[in-house]
């Protein structure tokens, strides 16, 4: 994703191609075929005068299965879920601060 964003910042033509035809553009850059059961939306968020808020898909934790590597990390005392939660809280607090100062 970093490569795609970097290319979009450097080339207006590439950015337009990515926004108008994201599947073909991403497949061309990555060399990988994307799943056909998912929709890809590329939103040009380069306007610095606009604050964008993305509502992510809700995760169904009841059906979430951890890999062996993830289970080992948790058993070893590393809790990536808590780290991700803390990051989410931090981002949420930052958004609240920004919203209160607009």
UniProtKB/TrEMBL annotation:
Keywords: Membrane, Transmembrane, Transmembrane helix. Gene3D superfamilies: Nitrile hydratase alpha /Thiocyanate hydrolase gamma. The chain crosses the membrane at residues 73-99. One of its GO terms (molecular function) is transition metal ion binding. InterPro entries: Bacteriocin_IIb_lactobn/cerein, CN_Hdrase_a/SCN_Hdrase_g_sf, TOMM_pelo. This is TOMM propeptide domain-containing protein. It comes from Flavobacterium hydrophilum.
